[in-house]
Amino acid sequence: MGERLNQRDARERIEDLERPALDDRSYRVVTLPNRLEVLLIHDPNTDKASAALDVNVGSFSDAEDMPGIAHAVEHLLFMGTEKVSVEPKSWLQDPRSSSLGANDARCWALSRNKPEHDADSAYLLTIRYNWTNTFQYPKENAYNQYLNAHSGHSNAYTASTSTNYYFELAASSSTPTSSKAPSPNATQETLPTAKDDSPLWGALDRFGQFFVAPLFLEDTLDRELKAVDSENKKNLQSDTWRLHQLNKALSNPNHPYCHFSTGSYKTLHDDPIVRGVKIRDEFIKFYSTHYSANQMKLVILGRESLDTLEEWAEEIFSKVPNKDLPQKRWDDVPVYTKNELMMQTFARPVFELRSLELTFLYRDEEDLYESHPSRYLSHLIGHEGPGSIFGYIKAKGWANGLGAGGSSLCPGTGIFTINVKLTEDGLKHYKEVTQVIFQYIAMIREQPPQQWVVEEQIRMSEVDFRFKQKSPPSRTTSALAREMQKTYNRKMLLSGPAVIRKFDAEAISQAMTFLRPDNFRLNVVSQIFPGGWDQKEKWYGTEYINERIPEDFVAEIKHTFENSAKERPKELHFPHKNEFIPNRLEVEKKEVEVPLKAPKLIRMDESVRTWYKKDDQFWVPKANVHIYLRTPIPHVTARTTVMSALYRNLVSDALVEYSYDADISGLVYEFNNHTAGLSISVEGYNDKLHVLLEKVLVQVRDLEVREDRFEIVREHMSRSFRNWDFGQPFHQVGTFSRYLKSEKSFLTDELLREIENITAQDIRLFYPQILSQAYIEVLAHGNLHKEEALQITDLVEKTMKPKRLPPSHLGIQRTLILPPGSNYVYERQLKDPANVNHCIEYSLYVGNTMDRDLRAKVLLLSQMTDEPAFNQLRTIEQLGYVVFSGTAFADTWAGYRILIQSEKDCDYLEGRIDHFLNSFEKMLQEMKEDEFEGHKRAVINKRLEKLKNLEQEGNRFWNHIFSDAYDFSQADEDVLHVEPLTKQSLVDFFHHYISPKSPTRAKLSVHLVARAKPKEATPAERKTQAVTSLSTILKAEKIDADTAKLESRFEALSLDNAKADDALGAELLAYLAEDLELEGDVVEKVLDEAKAALGLAREKRVSGPVRIEDVHVWKAGLQMSTGVRPVKDLGEFMEGNAKL
Ligand SMILES: [Zn+2]
């Protein structure tokens, strides 16, 4: 790209990007005069606008003596905007499958490019100048408040060579109303061009300031470092992070991959201070050394025209300073040298995991994006069908899972990894498993690269790209901003990562040469094998052994590899042709005025209900079919619940080889057990859907329970029950909450007790009982004809042949009612001895979810408290990295909740939540009308958010069927009930149900108590904390604080005795009242918050909560709610009904 880009008119504009067939967005790539490359996306129908900026610097650029600095700069730049999602996970989910958080793990540290210490002093001055004189949004949470007021949100993450910031918010400032709810095909509104009419402009302007004139406020520094510290502590007991860090730690010490990337208070604050480093200056220096317009990629998506978006981008972002920095690359440093290769590592996990991993030194394939050669290898090695490594070792009883793939760690470096989840027996045979892997690799290397294999991949990648549906705007912008750091031809920005374009035999042959028996590392993870772990990883404390792979084992592998053809088991061979690749891709497109919001009932009788909707808006050759066999049998007792879950897993286990080809061809099935029956879902390209569905149904009906598979499946499941206790407390807490709200629900330890006494014979006898009688409900949705929906129903009936279960025999879904004035606490001690984090979920019951007015008020309250709760409890009080507030809806239970995971104990958190609610009550009373209306608008926008794709619509329908309420128009109803709400009605609602002072509110808190204690702060640390906390709070109160006086008060203060807390509190009081001469009520408020931040506060509670000791007795003392009923007579959904 040349200098001529300085001229706007001569600017190169690339617009003809390859795109999916259904993509109605337009795209433009431009480069601003400061060399910042921008992708503009005009989406005329979007209801959300978004932008993302990716900076080409990450933890690989961390200074060696300040690990985590790139991550800390990310936090500091946006001051408290990084959030973690707290959606609870289902208890049956294997905790191992939890993916890494936003700070993706392929990260981390190096110091080869240490910041040049003198080069940037001029720039430091610029930053300070900007900060004091020109920064337009000095209030630190102004960005979040703005986003919140426009139904928006933001987040950021730090990877190895990327730091990625993004936000999303309403695309328009006008409120859509339910009567003219937007549909994806709604006629295009006139494009907004005025800045005032577009929330996007205001957000971009605030967002851009972070890169033009970053704040690095002194008093947010300590807080954000605490947030980083809390984030690190959240990960300390997570095996995903622990094992990943161990792999990194054992790589070449000269490659940045080896360093610790998250950072902690110690690495970013304590240690540097001891060395006499001015830490704030270090952060600013890091920023000014690595942040440069020419290494930033910006993506903006909005309703505005490309020309308008380009103008805005230029106006805001051309001010970002450009330093013409080179791209960060590590070409000359291998991630493994001969010192690290041919080593074996045995690591001891926190969870009961067992795995074998082979890691090969590979290459960076970024420039080979037209052929993606590593996908040839991962396709074959990772295959699960007949002939595959996995098929063979699964039949031996050695493995429950296998994954393989190449990954680029950074430009210039790549690895190829094969990971096998081992059974107990597999662990004993890990050497044989290794041999099998090398036999298979030798087999594929004997043949030249197979063109037909690649052609199948090409075909599937093209189909997937052609019918790729939209993802949410912020996911689109964030991902594309990151992709733009790569070298793709700009016309292939969207297709490059997805599509394989050509068969490149030469490139594949080269790729295969890396998978050799002298070019790998071997890694075994187990809690019991081999014992004698003699080393500890520095940051997470993982115990391990690291040693040379024994000569004789290496010799065996080499022998196998070279003599493979003769000695190889005949079971290993290339996969068969994939019969599931879809051919029929026609879509019958019948344009409609307004898409239907509900499926129709096309059959309803004593044994079956069939719901059907032909797709009328997404036009993809796909369908979703959900089948529900309704019966109470699976959930009668904990024992039947576990037997049903075992049955489910045995069916899935039996289908692995068969369903794999479908899976890689975009056609997936799911078989599940629920409290009210069994469900089978098949989703994907509709061409071969019936083939897979029939096979699944037959397997469900005819499952042969083999002893060997039963033992493996049972062991796997009981292990995941045991592991559950070692998961994140905030993932566990929802399960206890649900347990206390529903009449019948079982905890993991209750299930674990049952599983030991169940045999294969028990399952053989039990599962036909579930299937013997059921009511069938079917949803067929997508590119299907009505006749096909009816045929599918017939197929289910003919295959399963259940006896009729009259709908009146089905269970009724109810929840417990908490009477007014309730104040209950349920306490559990967490099992993980090393975890230091407590967790509280504080729930307030307001009534029945079927009460639309109450539901609307809960939605509005959640919107209004979202930003203030996070700001107070996380940003100001620093209670912990995980802070969440919002709705609590479960079956018929409607409520509001606040969840915090923290090192502070639960009683203390209880008090802080009360305190927050008290102060919010005042905010609500004083809230201006226009602000109140803004919150209403935000809720309405969220509820009317457009559906992005067919799956989303299918899931929405299915959830409403599954819930028994058939409330397909719930979103519109919510809007109708939010619209008339007045501020006074919310104030009254708050007084009655939410306020801690209310005698009529009903509260239930779950306290999960940690076993381990965090390290105590030293007296000096406590004093520093007190000074920073107090200045933060005073700043929020807009009081100028001279903290020097407080520091001098502290000099003489001794905190080495039992009365330290009182002494500290007294000194703070004296400072506020005497030195600052503040008014009495101000002193009280500030002191209160300061004590909270320092862990000195104890909220005085008038009456203590009732502790729930015996849950059974407690539940027996409560009444049940009315049950879930259909919101209207189901007959009204019948096809041809005039009311529809
Ligand atoms: Zn973070």
Description:
It is built from 36 helices and 28 strands. The longest helix is centred in the middle third of the chain and has 26 residues, at 638-663. The chain has five domains: 11-84 and 136-175 and 191-328 and 471-485, Cytochrome Bc1 Complex, Chain A, domain 1 (2-Layer Sandwich), CATH 3.30.830.10; 343-449 and 503-567, Metalloenzyme, LuxS/M16 peptidase-like (Cytochrome Bc1 Complex, Chain A, domain 1); 600-809, Cytochrome Bc1 Complex, Chain A, domain 1 (2-Layer Sandwich), CATH 3.30.830.10; 816-1013 and 1105-1120, Cytochrome Bc1 Complex, Chain A, domain 1, CATH 3.30.830.10; 1019-1094, no CATH class. It has a seven-stranded mixed β-sheet. Strands 14, 15, 16, 17, 18, 19 and 20 form a seven-stranded mixed β-sheet that branches. The model is unreliable at 1-5, 86-138 and 177-190 (pLDDT under 50). Helix content is 40%, strand content 17%. Residues 71, 75, 82, 103, 228, 231 line the site of zinc ion. Keywords: Hydrolase, Metal-binding, Metalloprotease, Protease, Zinc.
Number of H- or I-type helical stretches: 36
Determine Rg (CA atoms, Å): 30 Å
Corresponding CATH architecture of the largest domain: 2-Layer Sandwich
> Tell me, what's the shape?
globular
- Main β sheet profile: 7 strands, mixed
What is the total tally of β strands? 28
CATH class of the largest domain: Alpha Beta
Helix content: 40-55%
CATH fold field value of the largest domain: Cytochrome Bc1 Complex, Chain A, domain 1
Number of domains: 5
Unreliable sequence segments:
1-5, 86-138, 177-190
Q: Mean pLDDT across all residues, rounded?
A: 89
